[in-house]
Amino acid sequence: MNTRLIGIAAALLAAFCAAWMIQGWRLGGQMLEMQAEWSETLRKTAEANAAVILKQQQDRQALADELASLDEQRYGELRHAQQEIDRLSAAVADGSKRLSVRASCPAASVPATTSPGGLDAGAQRIDIHPADAAAIVRITGDADQCAVKLSALQDWARSVTRGN
Questions:
Q1: What pTM was estimated for this model as a whole?
Q2: Is the CB of residue 134 less than 8 Å from the CB of residue 94?
Q3: What is the pLDDT of residues 143-160, one digit of tens each?
Q4: For residues 152 and 74, is the Cβ–Cβ distance under 8 A?
Q5: Which long-range contacts (CB under 8 A, 24 or more apart) does 73-79 make?
Q6: Are 91 and 97 in contact (CB under 8 A)?
Q7: Is pLDDT of 1 > 80?
Q8: Rounded average pLDDT over 45-52
Q9: Contact in structure between 56 and 148 (CB atoms under 8 Å)
């Protein structure tokens, strides 16, 4: 009986070991399948992320190109404004350009201008002192530059916030 019991135990042990091995193979196959699915999921996620990153890079480059174009345009306008300020300042400084204001009160020392008729026909004009005229040119020049800079800033803000 002892041998029979040992035989049964050996058979049960062999069956258990065989079942254990078969279960290990089956679970190993399932794990390989799950790893393959996980790898595929990771690959698809990486491709989707790469596409999003590429799109963002293209958008960023397009925005950078647009802003560079705006900068170039506004810088040209700023240079032109500065050239006009310099030209007008030089003309006021050398006396070839004089600034004047209309005077509504007649004064004995204020001669009437001999300009062709216009909106202020018959009005008297008084020349502004050259130092004050230079200051006015400087102030208006600064205002022109500020207007160009403000316009550039507004264009930049519109470009940057367009997609939001």
A1: 0.51
A2: no
A3: 988 998 898 889 888 888
A4: yes
A5: 74/148, 74/149, 74/151, 74/152, 74/155, 77/148, 77/151, 78/145, 78/148, 78/149, 78/152
A6: yes
A7: no
A8: 96
A9: no
